[in-house]
Amino acid sequence: MARGTVVWRCWICSTATAKATCVHSGAKYYIGYRLAGKQKWEPIGRNRKDAEHRLAGVMKELQQGTFRLLKPIVFREFSEQWLRDYAEGVVKPLTLRFYRIAVRTYLNPVFGQFLLTQINAQTIQAFVARCRRESNLSAKSTRSLFTVLKMLLKQARRWGYLRENPAEGIKPPKLEEKEMDFLHPKEIRLLLQNADEPYRTLFLTAILTGMRRGELLGFQWGDVDWHNRRIRVRRTLYCHTKAELAERGKGQVEKWQFSTPKSSKSIRTIVMSPRLKDALGLHRLTCPRSSLDLVFCTKEGGPIQAENMVKREFLPALARAGLRRVRFHDLRAPYLRHVVDRPGRERQIHSVSTGPCVH
After folding, report:
1. DSSP assignment of 267-332, as one string?
2. Same domain, yes or no, for 89 and 31?
3. Which of 1, 169, 186, 193 has CA atoms 20 to 30 A from the CA of 337?
4. Residues 290 and 331 in one domain
């Protein structure tokens, strides 16, 4: 046994042979080697070449004195550990929400019962293909799921559960180039004419500043420099779902949470056009008072629920205007298409013409 061995084991047939002798799903190749005077058996899979390759690596590490025994753990258990001990501390709330959905809805149902050491490049490649073929996911969604899986397995290697990341070297599906949709000036005027306050001003601010949805809902009056016509983007507003609040425990976290914007480059100063300055000035005179100093808030002064705003105000306004259905973030497109960077990370919009004020 000094050189190790490869054995096919089937616990149903109660057999252990050098070759595969049954078709039971639980049967697989094991490698055997001695460590500190004790016999160790490590499950590999149904491919003998994988077992032989793994055994050769183990014997080399034993000879060099660099071998370390892996901690056995199933994917489902590790994925929850990764979400709790790693992701919660390093990513923003919205990203963490996506990670939870990716792990619990897509990854755990496929890999959940496997030991981490049983996951190989072939099973990962099959998962990627199945996402496109059977789940009808777009190339972008499939690529995002693959990225989460790769990150998870990378952390497993760092924590001593894997020696190699089986996702390395696998190419995710290519992204399909898709031109961003946006509303033209005439369509923008129609949208604003069919929107009710305070959402008319909110939509106008999105169009003339390129601010994201969370940045708009976390926008405070203290961020406005009226004298120099500047808006400072410094925060975003995040709303925890009921499931997230239940998971964290009652009273452990507030429903609403301010966070920094998407990236360091997203912390920026935007030049406020004369039209937007007038619109925000009028809005300030008529909007409810908010204890959080929010520019856009509910009638009671509280934060606006992002999904409710889109479903109850933005999409109905598009329908009333007779316009096609676009994403809320497509309102940023006119600004982004006509934006010019200036020193000091300031940005000025030049040629988005939305016509006369509709207030």
Report:
1. SEEEEPPHHHHHHHHHHHHHSPP-TT-BSS--TTS-PPPHHHHIIIIIHHHHHHTTPPP--GGGGG
2. no
3. 193
4. yes
Main-chain dihedrals φ then ψ at residue 16, nearest 5 degrees? -145, 105
Say yes or no: 321 and 215 in one domain: yes
Give the residue among 279, 304, 277, 280 at the shortest CA–CA distance from 292: 304
57 with 81, same domain? no
CA dist 150 and 138 (Å) reads: 18
* Residue 255 domain flag: no
Q: Do 273 and 191 have their domain in common? A: yes
Six token digits for residue 251: 């009273």
Residue 339 C-beta-side C-alpha neighbours within 13 Å: 20
50 plus 134 within the same structural domain: no
Query: How do the residues of the chain divide into helix, strand and coil, expressed in percent and rounded to 5?
Result: 45, 15, 40
The total number of residues written for the chain in this structure:
359
Per-residue pLDDT of the chain (359 residues; tens, 9 = 90+): 457 899 998 877 877 777 777 878 778 888 888 887 788 888 888 888 888 888 888 888 888 877 777 778 899 999 999 998 898 878 888 888 899 999 999 999 999 998 898 898 889 999 998 887 877 788 888 999 999 999 999 999 888 888 789 998 888 888 777 666 778 889 999 999 999 999 999 999 999 988 898 899 999 999 999 999 999 998 888 777 767 666 666 555 567 778 777 777 778 888 888 999 999 999 999 899 988 899 999 999 889 888 889 999 999 999 999 999 988 888 887 655 554 334 344 444 433 444 444 44
Same structural domain for residues 26 and 145? no
Domain that includes residue 286, residue range: 185-236+268-349
DSSP string, 187-250: HHHHHHHT--TTHHHHHHHHHHH---HHHHHT-BGGGEETTTTEEEE--EEEE--HHHHHHH-T
**Is 251 within a domain?**
no
* Residue 333's CATH number: 1.10.443.10
Domain shared by 283 and 141, yes or no: no
How many domains are contained in the chain?
3
